[in-house]
């Protein structure tokens, strides 16, 4: 464990030396240098979407005139500024905002995960914490990412603040992943328990976040534009950190400041699809039936400005800049990596072989069959923004080191009872794929990390692998296939080379899904 990648606390690093190429000792050195580059890039990706930098990019305050600028809009501050927030990254956003806005802020209420303040304190992340006499009231709740009584109390306090505002006021709304569970206000007569049960059932049966949040919006007072309506006639500016592929503002935290466009029929289809329609509690049926005949229609959100201030794309763009500064030819392949982790791992395995062959001219065309398989698999994964052709063209014949970046959120279907997370499982699977066939005269490294710093229920953010992983593991008496069969990737990486391939960042205070880094370095 001691040797594991420790990232964010150690911002100052020794300068990176050129890679030594050649025999086995040199190859080990090059592996370590690649790992160092990978963690630097991961660090820079996360750094671009930390609350402080994000807020400073999104907001600027003219102290003399008291004008607050958000993008190209200006708001006059005169003791009329309020703040609410909900989500896993909102504590640091509120702290950065209070620092920036100072006395202009009249009052705030935020709903954040249970234990987050203590965790940030333990991690020494003072910048993520509000000052002792803060004007922002903090509620902690939603243990295990489920709406609970504490989160309900927070939601009611947020609603109360919003409802008390006038046309002269400006409400800043901070939104990040996990916001849905942290802002539960079921429409009566639905109870919190009924909403919790339905959410759990939908999630357990594999509903997508789009489907889950469509239902949440229909059953909630504040989601699907309800919060914006509660704040009317105040001006509302939502600053949103996206944890959903494609950054859909109506889905992230169930769009509390975005008018819902879904009909009751949409909800019934979803409930049917997961076999839940027949067993719906009477209260849910009542609310859906009422919504059907609601003469007011969907909430209007004309007084709202919704702004995405942090996303996977922004994080990867920064990593790309850093990679180029380190001398790599860097391409962002996709920010929408989704699908079963096994297929995603196969995709990266094939990509390494095909891109590797393109990289070294005499071998171009060697992997025709793999090239075809790669394109087929990419089509099957339906990655809407995939830049595969561009990446392969950028690599072709250059002979220079290449860095392919991607992000998103693959899914793991849990079969075993081991300890792991989707990033460690993906890395382990990619390691196994890379070791299956010779890759030619290139060094390859793949890293997968969760930008929130916590991969599943483990303390690591992710892990990195090289093609030698499986053979080195065997030499240590570790069988990769057995660990994978039990979803036990964290146990594997904790034992393998004393934990040296684990990526440890601690909680980062942000969350824009996962980042994947693939290096190809011609020897
Ligand atoms: N043993 C395991 N091996 C692999 N993946 C696991 C394991 N246990 C849990 N997971 C996965 O971890 C994920 C839950 O962890 P986590 O809290 O990091 O993700 P999340 O709820 O999507 O939150 P976030 O988006 O904030 O990362 C689920 O996708 C789950 O399938
Ligand atoms: O809170 C939620 O709804 C999810 O994290 C998606 O934003």
TrEMBL record:
<comment type="similarity">
    <text>Belongs to the glycerate kinase type-2 family.</text>
</comment>
<keyword id="KW-0067">ATP-binding</keyword>
<keyword id="KW-0547">Nucleotide-binding</keyword>
<keyword id="KW-0808">Transferase</keyword>
<dbReference type="Pfam" id="PF13660">
    <property type="entry name" value="DUF4147"/>
</dbReference>
<dbReference type="InterPro" id="IPR039760">
    <property type="entry name" value="MOFRL_protein"/>
</dbReference>
<dbReference type="InterPro" id="IPR007835">
    <property type="entry name" value="MOFRL"/>
</dbReference>
<protein>
    <recommendedName>
        <fullName>Glycerate kinase</fullName>
        <ecNumber>2.7.1.31</ecNumber>
    </recommendedName>
</protein>
<feature type="domain" description="MOFRL">
    <location>
        <begin position="402"/>
        <end position="514"/>
    </location>
</feature>
<dbReference type="InterPro" id="IPR038614">
    <property type="entry name" value="GK_N_sf"/>
</dbReference>
<dbReference type="InterPro" id="IPR037035">
    <property type="entry name" value="GK-like_C_sf"/>
</dbReference>
<feature type="domain" description="MOFRL-associated">
    <location>
        <begin position="37"/>
        <end position="288"/>
    </location>
</feature>
<dbReference type="GO" id="GO:0005524">
    <property type="term" value="F:ATP binding"/>
</dbReference>
<dbReference type="InterPro" id="IPR025286">
    <property type="entry name" value="MOFRL_assoc_dom"/>
</dbReference>
<dbReference type="GO" id="GO:0008887">
    <property type="term" value="F:glycerate kinase activity"/>
</dbReference>
<keyword id="KW-0418">Kinase</keyword>
<dbReference type="GO" id="GO:0005737">
    <property type="term" value="C:cytoplasm"/>
</dbReference>
<dbReference type="Pfam" id="PF05161">
    <property type="entry name" value="MOFRL"/>
</dbReference>
